[in-house]
Amino acid sequence: TRTVNAALAERLGPDWRELFVEFDDKPAAAASIGQVHRAVWHDGREVAVKVQYPGAGAALLSDLNQLARFAKVLGPLVPGLDLKPLIAELRERVSEELDYELEASAQQAHAEEFADDPDVFVPGVVHQSSQVLITEWMDGIPLSEVIANGTQEQRDRAGQLMTRFLFSGVSRTGLLHADPHPGNFRLLTGDAPDGPPEMWRLGVLDFGTVDRLPDGLPEEIGLALRLALEGDAAAVYALMREEGFVKPSIQIDPDALLEYLLPMIEPARAEEFAFDRTWIRGQAARLADRKSPLYDLGNQINLPPSYLLIHRVCLSTIGVLCQLGATVALRTELEDWVPGFLAAEDGEFDELDDLAGHEESDEVEETEEASA
């Protein structure tokens, strides 16, 4: 408490308590770099006061610098992964997370965009200063409680709305909320706690980690998903190589790559998919089996820095949906919000065929050179 009080005095002034009608000294939530207090602002609004611990940011960045030093040691374990630029990207994103001015801007952009939305609510920003962020307070059922004790209707509605928000938000604001864990979402049942579920909304918190994508999600994501579901192994391989998921020094069999990917993207094929812990454990076991050729193939795949947060969002979202045990119409959200997932424009396949043909030609040349 003393640390937080001192931090608030330094950042809001020695008379900071006069800014509030009430201030609860007991934190409502806490994390590694700061904590949140419930309070009443001087105009009567209930607010959440987010305070960053002094020195927490510097300590976190120091840890990342230490990780960067291990990149050369870790590199041989995953030959397909280019670690150095990935760690540099991670450090840049963490630096942004420590900047409450950027967070305030991202949250306010979402609050304004979703102000009249029937499905999503984002609290507005009330005040922001160095390492202190004050936003409107939001009640609701934390997703952690829905995971633990929620009805199936609550699970399905929360899962559908979370998926919709994460895919639609980036198209509507140019910002991808990149921290989708249960603590950052609330199910808002409002005046209809007993339903129908269509009346329930999703409340979204914590915009400290966002990916700035002014043009929305890359079209290549939707295109790769569609081509994989259509079974076009050569085009998927060509596209992934072009985007940097396969380094120039690495050769992967396109059919093996498709076999690796298809079970993970099965939820995008069905009209509705029932996510559960058994399914995700099966996926993890399949990819972690050292006796399987898929294990070695996975170590050949790169993660381009520009896709780091997108990858994090996809994996984290699937994890939360499986925790919820939610049945979700994922394909509908992909069709509505992910560029490239719907039917091809004229000329698209010609370009991909040329790219795939070029990759095959290169591989033939490399094989001939090796034989010579």
From TrEMBL:
Organism domain of life: Bacteria
Q: What is this protein called?
A: AarF/ABC1/UbiB kinase family protein
The answer on whether this UniProt entry bears the keyword ATP-binding reads: yes
The species is: Streptomyces palmae
Using the record's annotation, list all stretches that form the ABC1 atypical kinase-like domain. Answer: 3-237
Q: Name one GO molecular function term.
A: kinase activity
Q: Which family does it belong to?
A: Belongs to the protein kinase superfamily. ADCK protein kinase family.
- Kindly list any coiled-coil regions of this protein: none
Q: Which InterPro entries match?
A: ABC1_dom (IPR004147), ADCK3_dom (IPR034646), Atypical_kinase_ADCK (IPR051409), Kinase-like_dom_sf (IPR011009)
Q: Does the keyword ATP-binding apply?
A: yes
Q: Where is this region: Disordered?
A: 352-372
UniProt keyword annotations, A-Z: ATP-binding, Kinase, Nucleotide-binding, Transferase
